[in-house]
Amino acid sequence: MISMKKHLILSQLTLCAGLAFAGFSVQAQDVKGSAQAGQGKVWLCIGCHAIPDYRADYPLVYKVPMIGGQNAAYIASSLAAYKKGERKHPTMRSIAGSLSDQDMADLGEYYAAQTASSPNNPLK
Questions:
Q1: Quick check: 54 and 89 in contact, CB under 8 A?
Q2: E strands along the chain, which residues?
Q3: Angle (nearest 5°) at CA 36 between 95 and 114
Q4: Is the Cβ–Cβ distance between 54 and 48 less than 8 Å?
Q5: Residue 82: φ, ψ to 5°
Q6: Count of alpha carbons within 13 Å of 74, Cβ hemisphere only?
């Protein structure tokens, strides 16, 4: 009898957790980024990502990628992974931790829109 109650409670908790995660992922997918809005937020990124061949040296020497032209969804999901701690770089984690889902989507769209012929952002 007790094991049946535990099984029922565990099933209900699993269902609730699944619904909560489903709601979270639907909410995150509903965020539409704007390259124009991202242009005003890019100051968070340019200190490292706008410098050709830049290498960060904390905590290890790390070649910082140029992210112009990268896929918007990839940038937004990478930032979300840093914010959650799934990616391990202290500087990126602290920067991503300050961003909302909208900020991440906007930055993703901004960088996705960049090409070799894009004019320089005046904030760079």
A1: no
A2: 55-56, 62-63
A3: 80
A4: yes
A5: -65, -45
A6: 7
**pLDDT for residue 8 is more than 50:** no
Residue-level length of the chain: 124
pLDDT for residue 85 is more than 80: yes
Structure tokens at 35: 């390259």
Task: Provide the 3-class DSSP secondary structure of residue 6.
Answer: helix
The better pLDDT of the pair 64, 21 is held by 64
What mean pLDDT value characterizes the chain?
80
Instruction: For residues 66 and 87, give the distance between their C-alpha atoms in angstroms, rounded to a whole number.
Output: 18
Q: Is 68 left (phi over 0), alpha (psi -120 to 50) or beta?
A: beta
Tell the residue number behind the tokens 């996705």, with chain if given: 112
Q: Is the dihedral of CA 87, 90, 92, 97 positive or negative?
A: positive
Contact 87, 80 (CB under 8 A): no
Cis-peptide, bond into residue 59, ω within 30° of zero: yes
The whole-angstrom distance between residue 16's C-alpha and the CA centroid of its chain comes to: 26
